[in-house]
Amino acid sequence: MAQAINLIDTGQATIRQRLSAALEQPMQExxxxxxxxxxxYVDETGAPTGNADGxxxxxxxxxxxxxxxxxxVTVFLQSLSRSAAAAIDLLGNAFGGIVVxxxxxxxxxxxxxxRQLCWAHVIRxxxxxxxxxxxxxxxxxxxxxxxxxxxxxxxxxxxxxxxWSTLQQGCRPIRQAFVGTLHxxxxxxxxxGERTPWAKTVRTCHQLLQVSDGLWTFLEIEGIEPTxxxxxxxxxxxxxxxxxxxxxxxxxxxxxxxxxxxxxxSLRQQGRDIWQFLEQALIAxxxxxxxxxxxxxx
Length: 298
Fold this sequence. Notes:
The chain has 298 residues and is of the alpha/beta class. The chain folds into two domains: 2-116 and 230-287, no CATH class; 119-226. The chain is built from eleven helices and five strands; from the N terminus they run αβββαββααααααααα. It has helices at 2-34, 84-91, 119-130, 134-158, 164-188, 197-210, 217-220, 229-234, 236-245, 251-270, 274-287; strands spanning 39-46, 63-68, 74-79, 98-101, 115-117. A five-stranded mixed beta sheet has the order 3-2-1-4-5, sandwiched between helices. Helix 1 packs across helix 11 (274-287) and helix 4 packs antiparallel against helix 5 (164-188). The longest helix has 33 residues, at 2-34. The termini are far apart.
């Protein structure tokens, strides 16, 4: 029985290795393509990775990174790190477009003019402030009210009620009031080491003020969404898989999973047949010939 199980495990590992190798070229082509886009949406989630192949001897947790483009290509990249170095591995050393992300520090190597910070995350922070008692609650309600005015204008633009210039003009005073409120809270300040609800409010407003220039890129450059919801949605399959299987047993298995996620997600975006692509990739890798591409048809 044990021998039969070992044979099954060996056979599965061989299939996985062949599939991963067949998808390496399309994966690298898709990654290069994504790095050339003017806007990308990025996020990351935990991806437990074992050491069955010796690729994770330190027992590091593992992370799945994702980069979504508007051109129908989504790239997943497996890493044993959640650091700035891992973010650079995803984006490349010379990424020149706009990165839409949350405020996680791994993206801080990018200048704020290259970033759009996710407003969905900002709204969560503002809601937490509004839920506090006293002055914090008043400030939170004020900031949430300004945010609601901002996105009322945004939704009018998205449904075609107003044009781009009208959107910019209408949002200008809202932006000034929002930033002015953050300044007012920070100037009031709190005592060093203070742990009151007000101190939490001051710290949150200070953090938002430090990255304020990255909140408004979607109003300065047309074609950018104000949230990284696209990246969060793309990670959903990986999160569900993690909860069901508790991760993968080897580093190479994790890399294969990332390549498969890249293929399946990109092809679904483009409305293409996944099984046909996998068949073509395996044949091309085994017998030679033209490897199929994940890039959208021109």
